[in-house]
Amino acid sequence: MSTETHDVTKGTGRVITRFGAELLVRCDDKSTIRCAPKRKLENIACGDWVDWQSNPTGIARVDKIHKRKNAITRLTYRGKPRTIAANVDQLLIVSAWLPEPFWDLVDRYIIAAEQLGAEATIVINKQDLAEQYAKQEGWRALADYEKIGYKVLHVNTKDSTGIDALKETMSGKTNILLGRSGVGKSSIANKIMPEAAILTAEISESGEGRHTTTTADLYDLADDGYLIDSPGVRDYMPDNLDPIKLANGYIEFQPYLNSCRFSNCTHNHEPQCSVRQAVEEGEISTSRYERYLDALNNL
Q1: Inter-residue contact 91 to 178 (CB < 8 Å)
Q2: CA distances in angstroms from 177 to 69, 121, 299, listed in the order given
Q3: Is 46 annotated to bind ligand?
Q4: What is the pLDDT of residues 18-64, one digit of tens each?
Q5: Would you say 123 is a known binding-site residue?
Q6: Annotation-wise, does 179 bind a ligand?
Q7: Is 182 annotated as a binding-site member?
Q8: What is residue 226's predicted lDDT score, i.e. its pLDDT?
């Protein structure tokens, strides 16, 4: 009687997609392995770093999720949070001159970046329409963002204007694209993708073909840059804001937050509010402050 022995391989990798109960992991050697997580790791998501080990009689198993830098979650139809992407470094907030920019939404995405501890870059698409559709209010809003430290890039996917600068900004980071419908997120992704190594080509070698349903996909953009993309990711919006999180999301408020008379100041009507005084003295943009008040009233 003979006993067969099988070598078990272990490694570390990054989840590049999830389909049902299984997922694909990109290994250190750039190969891709099909895995299934332990039951207790059901919340695993695209972008997670994991430890895996092979299974001689079946697909590999994920044993551990590394500590996350952050996680993007959405509520399920049952009202429970579900992680759809993890370890994001930069939010690319896409707007355009047509449809008309919605600066309240841009502010909301910036707040999301601050909550995640991620960078925020504002991308204005359809640069060719600026002369016809851009308004002074829009140029002032962009100047306000740049003044407080946010990068603003102008691109045009029709002639690739600004695409190289966008790729440079994405280099070395895990990125996601955000923005309202019609601003050109898909066009920008398609401009970036042709040079990308799409890591989710095949689920297996058994003829099962490409997966059709997934939470998100991780694309390798070279120069150690990545894009996590899916309709669910593109439409992400933080849904757990309170007055404190909202105020902390306005980075120009931060030097003044501890100087207000009241520790629970909402920077709206309270006396001796340092934030409101900074607005009156021109240290904080009046437009940004007014949009903050609108957001506060809608919490």
Answers
A1: yes
A2: 18, 10, 25
A3: no
A4: 888 899 999 988 889 999 998 888 789 999 999 999 988 889 999 99
A5: no
A6: yes
A7: yes
A8: 94
Would the CA dihedral through 237, 238, 239, 242 be positive or negative?
A: negative
Strands 90-96 and 119-125: parallel
Q: Is 10 annotated as a binding residue?
A: no
Instruction: Specify the residue for token string 């109960």.
Output: 21
**CB contact at 8 A, 283 and 259:** no
Length of the chain: 299
11 annotated among ligand-binding-site residues:
no
**Structural domain count, the chain:** 2
- CA atoms of 35 and 18, how far apart (whole Å): 10
- Is residue 204 a part of any domain in this protein? no
pLDDT by residue (tens digit) across 96-115?
Answer: 999 999 999 999 999 999 99
Give pLDDT tens digits for 203-250. 333 334 343 334 689 999 878 899 999 888 888 887 788 999 999 999
Residues 133 and 165 both lie in one domain: yes
Would you say residue 103 lies in a domain? yes
Does 27 show up as a binding residue in the annotation? Answer: no
Is 149 annotated among the ligand-binding residues? no
pLDDT per residue as tens digits for the range 153-206: 999 999 999 999 999 999 999 999 999 989 999 899 989 986 665 544 433 333
Ligand-binding annotation for 181, yes or no, is yes
190 is in an annotated binding site: no
Q: Which residues are CB-contacts of 16 (< 8 A; sequence separation ≥ 6)?
A: 23, 24, 25, 26, 32, 46, 199, 200, 217, 218
Alpha carbons 165 and 46: distance in angstroms, whole number: 26
Same domain, 193 and 95: yes
Q: How far apart are CA 147 and CA 121, in angstroms?
A: 13
267 is in an annotated binding site: yes
Q: Residue 127 annotated as binding?
A: yes
Place of tokens 């898909």: 186
Residue 207's alpha-carbon distances to 14, 18, 35, 202, 211, in angstroms, are: 24, 18, 17, 9, 11
Q: Is residue 76 part of a domain?
A: no
